[in-house]
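Limitations
The structure tokens in this dataset are predictions for the assembled complex, not deposited experimental models. Users should treat interface geometry with appropriate caution, especially where small molecules or nucleic acid strands are included. An illustrative entry is reproduced here so readers can see what is and is not provided.
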Amino acid sequence: MSHPVRTPAGSRPALAVALVLTLAAGASAAWAGRDWYAAAHDDSAAYAAQRDEALAAGEQAVQNLNTLDHKRVEQGLDLWESSTTGELHRQLVEGRAEFTGQVRAARTVTTARVLSGAVTELDDRAGRARLLVALRITVTTPDSKSTDKDSRMLGELTRADGHWKLSALGQAPVGGTAVG
Amino acid sequence: MPTPRHHLNRQRRRQAALADQPGPGGRSRTPAGVFTEPAPRTGERPAVKSVRESAAEPKRQTRRAEKAAGEKTGREKTGVEKSGRVPLAVLCVLTLLLGGFAGWAYSRAGELRDDPARGNTALTDLARTSEIKGQTGAAVAALFSYDHADTAPFERAGKTLLTGKAVAQHRTLLGGVLAKAAEQKTVITTTVTDSAVERIDGDRARVLVYADQSSVSTAGLPSKDTPAKAADQGVYAGAMFAVDVVLRDGRWLVENIDTFGR
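Predicted assembly:
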């Protein structure tokens, strides 16, 4: 009579322990899962990722548009066009022939280095951003003389087909109105 | 008015009901009493049950039934152990699976949070971003503006807005101008035209600044050291540099001025 009763009773504490462990594992799985979901669906994280993506693309595009080798004008201008969109792109395409002639005549090699860059505005829904890029441009003339010039660039980016491209680029104006 | 058919049906139902009821000394009880007697060896409850099951069988099958009952008892015993082991195994597997998922999800969440993009709160924390922009702009304007007639604001700015190596950097940057400032009656006005926060990491940040600097010397000749800054008439110069700022007692102080090697 006592024998068959003892058998399930023997496994009962083990079952209880296992049940507690399973519940604990379930609870931690639920907690970790929620945590992971929250981390993966964090809006500010997605926004931060867009900001960094826009900045990286913007800095590269600004550098591209300030780099040109007179020996490889066509390749350089192709890169310019692929880095831009909208109005800026249209202007580059329209002025391409004239510009090619000018660069070939001047026989200069221009390279640029981004010193620093930062995004000032980002509308990740509309796909628009503005950025500042501090640029050092080096122009090498045919007689191998090179001059450095720092440029304070202001760029506007537009997202096209999932890629950030420059839609406007200019230099920050110096001194609006002179004082006495 | 019961018709013959109704009557027949009722009778049939009554018979059926009677057949369902176990009769006095029905199969399940009385034979058990009879058949437990020749099977004391099994002596166990499951055996009794098995015998009871086979009670309906003819008597010559009893021996076989007893043997089967004995085997069955053994099997049932391990079955009881098994029935304890199966849920145990299920629970163990569940524990492992859930624990594994928890660990994996935890590490995934950690990976996502360690993403450098997330660590930088520039623009994502708009309030802090504009606070830094505002304070840095004001600090830069105060630090790089100088009026020979009233040097107090300039000196105060140098004492309150700088920290660390920026103190020495500031002195180096303005040293040339300051040396001749008094005799040349120099007035420098610096205005931040554009700025952007590159990075915010807790109480540290880096800001890219575009500033316009107008320099007026009302006496003396333009200095050779700072030709862009000193002239008889107002001269504008555009400057670009980056400043590292740190939060100290609720104020963002300039800790480093990066003029990009210029």
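Some entries come with short summary sentences. For this one: The CA atoms of residues 35 and 51 of chain B lie 7 Å apart.
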